[in-house]
């Protein structure tokens, strides 16, 4: 499965001033990592955001967000966001910032 290259470029631009961000092709898409932790990714045209268990329910109430069930089983702390949910740069930035904030709370790998 190919992933949205335009979205990948938007993410790269948003993250250009953040040191230590890596990319890894996974799950037929692209994942971005901070400190070795996956925090956002792209599956097809869909954004994956790792918001953490505490922010999970609130994230699911946002427009165009849904349960991340990539494996057929819901992954608590992760959400999928449809393209209308990050069409505006400020919306994409909010998802990225929230995801970076969460992985920043995780222990060093």
Structure description:
Helices cover 28% and strands 28% of the residues. With 109 residues, the protein is an alpha+beta fold. The protein has a single domain (5-103), classed as Aspartate Aminotransferase, domain 1 (Alpha-Beta Complex). Strands 1-2-3-4-6-5 form a six-stranded antiparallel beta sheet. The longest helix is centred in the C-terminal third of the chain and has 15 residues, at 89-103.
Break the fold down into its secondary structure elements and pairings.
Elements lengths: L4 H11 L5 E6 L2 E6 L2 E7 L2 E5 L5 H5 L4 E3 L10 E4 L7 H15 L6
Antiparallel strand pairs: 1-2, 2-3, 3-4, 4-6, 5-6
Number of helices: 3
Coarse structural class: alpha+beta
Instruction: Record the strand order, biggest sheet.
Output: 1-2-3-4-6-5
Tell me the major beta sheet: 6 strands, antiparallel
Helix content: 25-40%
- The percent range for strand residues is 25-35%
| CA-based shape | globular
Radius of gyration based on Cα positions: 13 Å
Task: Report mean pLDDT, rounded to a whole number.
Answer: 95
Q: Are there runs of 5+ residues with pLDDT below 50, and where?
A: none
What is the number of beta strands? 6
**Any idea what the CATH architecture is?**
Alpha-Beta Complex
CATH fold-level label: Aspartate Aminotransferase, domain 1
Number of domains: 1
Distance between the termini: 29 Å
Elements, N to C (H/E)? HEEEEHEEH
CATH class membership: Alpha Beta
